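Protein in question quoted in full.
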Amino acid sequence: MSFPACRHAKTPSAAMTTLRWLAAEPFRVFFLTGALFSIAGVALWPMLYAGWLAFYPGASHARLMVECFAGAFVLGFLGTAGPRMLSAPRLTPVEFCTLLALHLACGACHLLGRNVCGDALFIAMLGGFVAMLGGRMLLCRCDAPPPAMLLTATGLLCGIAGAVMWLRDGWHNTAVTYRLAGLLLHQGFLLGPVMGVGSFLLPRLLGGDFGEPASAAERRGAWLRTLFTVALLLGSFATEVWVHAESGVLLRAATVAFAFTGIRWQRGEGTLAGALVWWCVPLVLIGTAAPALAYTRHVALDHLIFIGGFGMLCLIAASRVLFGHSGMLPGFTKKSRTARWIVALVIIAAFTRASAEFIPGILVSHHNYAAALWALAALLWLLWHARRFFKKDPQPD
């Protein structure tokens, strides 16, 4: 005996429908909040020099830029693309809201100088996301992940490990452990996704296909190449802190160069693709190697890769995602005056910040100039994409 369908069955509300859409495409919110946190993160320096801050913002600035800016872009991209690559269920509204709440609370804590609380929230957010994606890979996937995702997973685990080391003073109370924590969080967390996701995303950004292995033999070769790259990356950290600092830096630069040689490079069309080839990738390589030339100034030189490499790559990759998911993909391959301004501001900010500590007389002014340039670039990027953040693709996948 069957029962008739209930005529009073509830249909999903508009709010729930929107929430499910945002959960399936979390980049729409995380790219937005990440860019805003980056503006707040650089604004701490002018506020300090103006006498408006009661604490020194060095740690807060670094955490905001890594955990709340770059971390938001990593999570937004992987939260959208990860389930698709596995042919697994998208994030649920509960998962999305939990991650977003942890992300916002993490940023708020760092802005207030409560960095231990911020790190704990970052660990909870990143660990929760790894569990969500890992559960889908083990239980729900229909397709095997690309080999390069191992590098991405390594980066996420480096981020968690580095943040854990910052939770208690006793866990980073020597120069070695302090530097190791910084390397894992500030470089491992970002280089892993750059080399991993980049191996199949960068060819797409340049107008080609995703850089996936075409045969079983190529797939085995890609796995071996990825395992070797992971070993080199982790070995560079160990070499830098326990053996010889400059050698560790050079080994890491060689690791990045090795990872990039496996990418199918081609000449891309449009301002952003050109900036990727001629500015972003070279600055990743130069910024990784530069501290070997003046290791005592590595904090300043690291900004070549942080701003010109990681920062610009976040904005370029996010632009491709926003254009593609709003049904405006051809816009990514066009020449754009706005994009030129964004790229120029980011490049000048990178070199301005990297040079600040080499001439004591310009330290404060160059901190302020670099902060203003990045803030202007990020704001211009937000305004450029404002209508694309919440515009649905008329032909979604």
